[in-house]
Amino acid sequence: MPLVPPLDPNHDPETKKLAEFFNETLGFCPNSILTMQHRPAISKAFINLNKAVMANEGRVTSALKRMIAWVSSNATGCRYCQAHAIRAAERYGAEQEQLDNIWDYRTHPSFSEAERAALDFSLQASQVPNGVDAEIKERLYQYWNEGEIVEMLGVISLFGYLNRWNDSQGTDIEDGAVESANQYLGKHGWEKGKHDGGRY
């Protein structure tokens, strides 16, 4: 069982309406949102932040944003968010070769140098202590403008919140997310871990 159980999707009508966003991104409302609605101000603010961060304002595609989220979640070890990010990347049209080789983004030919710079930024920004340095900055500016870098950092920061939330919570992982994680990440050892419903 998770630290705090999720509430019924109908608990807060405003959260339920906002959470329709996740039917597009994931195909279901995440248990993390259903738990946040113990304090509806948090669930509503989070969904609105999520929508703002994931909006397409430039060349940072929806698929790349979800791969940035995956790298961030992989760096922090949150298996719940790893599964959600790879599922959303799939649903937003990431290339099959990229999904199959996300672990090898630094060397696999399906990733461009611009994507590698973005994903390395995510990796370094998600570490403690933070690893973003002058070299990362220089590489980012070779390919991306300031607004696009802000979008990327928005994704990384959003998933920093989600990684802490879901790993501390031990959020039960949904079947759809497990299916995507097993397909793309299972060969590298992904498993539910604490998100299988039996931690507490």
TrEMBL record:
Record's protein name: Carboxymuconolactone decarboxylase
Family annotation (Pfam families): CMD
Tree of life domain: Bacteria
Carboxymuconolactone decarboxylase-like domain location: 40-120
A GO MF term: peroxiredoxin activity
Stored InterPro entries: AhpD-like, CMD-like
Organism: Croceitalea dokdonensis DOKDO 023
